[in-house]
């Protein structure tokens, strides 16, 4: 999808350890990257609609802030099976890019402080390094403070 959109990115592979406590922190360590530059993709349900929150791996998703950013009232984390079915990716490898369907997406404001950020490339052990503004454009995301 990034290629088709003409977006420059750099893929980074590493050997995934299925015993890792945090897939995102594992990626940061394996790639030797500041954890604040590595973002995880979390699926949530906002007022009954499946949505995407993209936050730094060392933080957590503020569900109220996500709902506010999307003009919603209630939100909760999506069921893992629901997230996998809706995106076409497995947990730990869900990318905000190239999902089966474009879901409303919010990217944490902290991404803007970096020249590039890392997001899942669609499988465990693969990260895509991309400019934050390109990530916003390809996902049609809203940018807001949604991380704790």
Automatic annotation (TrEMBL):
<keyword id="KW-0648">Protein biosynthesis</keyword>
<keyword id="KW-0456">Lyase</keyword>
<comment type="similarity">
    <text>Belongs to the prolyl-tRNA editing family. YbaK/EbsC subfamily.</text>
</comment>
<dbReference type="InterPro" id="IPR036754">
    <property type="entry name" value="YbaK/aa-tRNA-synt-asso_dom_sf"/>
</dbReference>
<dbReference type="InterPro" id="IPR007214">
    <property type="entry name" value="YbaK/aa-tRNA-synth-assoc-dom"/>
</dbReference>
<dbReference type="GO" id="GO:0006412">
    <property type="term" value="P:translation"/>
</dbReference>
<dbReference type="InterPro" id="IPR004369">
    <property type="entry name" value="Prolyl-tRNA_editing_YbaK/EbsC"/>
</dbReference>
<dbReference type="Pfam" id="PF04073">
    <property type="entry name" value="tRNA_edit"/>
</dbReference>
<protein>
    <recommendedName>
        <fullName>Cys-tRNA(Pro)/Cys-tRNA(Cys) deacylase</fullName>
        <ecNumber>4.2.-.-</ecNumber>
    </recommendedName>
</protein>
<dbReference type="GO" id="GO:0016829">
    <property type="term" value="F:lyase activity"/>
</dbReference>
<dbReference type="GO" id="GO:0002161">
    <property type="term" value="F:aminoacyl-tRNA deacylase activity"/>
</dbReference>
């Amino acid at each position: 999808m990034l290629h088709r959109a003409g977006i420059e990115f750099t893929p980074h592979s590493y050997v995934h350890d299925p015993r890792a406590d945090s897939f995102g922190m594992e990626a940061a360590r394996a790639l030797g990257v500041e954890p604040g530059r590595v973002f995880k993709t979390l699926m949530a349900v906002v007022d009954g609609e499946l949505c995407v929150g993209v936050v730094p791996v060392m933080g957590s998703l503020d569900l109220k802030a996500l709902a506010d950013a999307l003009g919603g009232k209630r939100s909760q984390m999506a069921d893992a099976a629901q997230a996998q079915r809706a995106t076409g990716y497995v947990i730990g490898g869900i990318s905000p890019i190239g999902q089966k369907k474009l879901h409303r997406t919010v990217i944490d404001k902290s991404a803007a402080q970096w020249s590039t950020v890392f997001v899942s490339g669609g499988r465990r052990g693969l990260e895509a390094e991309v400019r934050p503004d390109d990530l916003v454009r390809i996902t049609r995301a809203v940018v807001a403070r949604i991380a704790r």
